[in-house]
Amino acid sequence: MVTQRGKRQIEIIEAALKVFGENGFFQGTMEEVAKEAGIGKATIYEYFSSKKELFQEMLVYFVEDYITGAHDATEKENTVRSKLIALTEYNIAFVKSKADTLQRMTSRSEHVSEDFKCKIFNIKQTVCSIALKIVEKGIETGELRSDLDKNIAALIIIGALNSVSTEYIFNEEIASNTINTSTFVDILLSGLS
């Protein structure tokens, strides 16, 4: 579910990621985005009707980048455990590399429309489908219990990944240490008992 964009749109969105990531939505200006993209401010408005629309499209682009990487990281693995380790490692690397930007962007949710919230919901469903495919494969190969509720299992995986991401974004003590992904996945697979 990757949005089709032209080269210029991508350049503008990537410039916006840098500007809004460094300065936040309120302090980041369209002039700064234009300068970062190496274009005139008017050119931005040929592609985006407002700063708010650009911000929302930037968030979608950011999440789609995550989805593509998460899919690529898990597809080359064979077992459920290795897929979950790959997904966890990708998730941590992505969040670590974008922690400052994520921190600034997540505090700007007042700038999203209802239409955008629907887009985010659909993107969330796509992310969940990556975990769901891993669970289904695990049930099929016997690596996971056959009586497992695959939808709840996928939500638990996504919830665990989101929790790790949140720690990396907002907890500097965790961010400075590395989570052992094998241990994380082993606890996820074996449960707490």
UniProtKB/TrEMBL annotation:
Protein name: TetR/AcrR family transcriptional regulator
Species of provenance: Alkaliphilus serpentinus
Domain annotation HTH tetR-type: ranges: 6-66
PROSITE patterns assigned: HTH_TETR_1, HTH_TETR_2
GO molecular function: DNA binding
Alphabetic keyword roster: DNA-binding
InterPro entries documented for this protein: DNA-bd_HTH_TetR-type_CS (IPR023772), Homeodomain-like_sf (IPR009057), HTH-type_Tx_Regulator (IPR050624), HTH_TetR (IPR001647), KstR2_TetR_C (IPR041490), Tet_transcr_reg_TetR-rel_C_sf (IPR036271)
DNA-binding region range list: 29-48
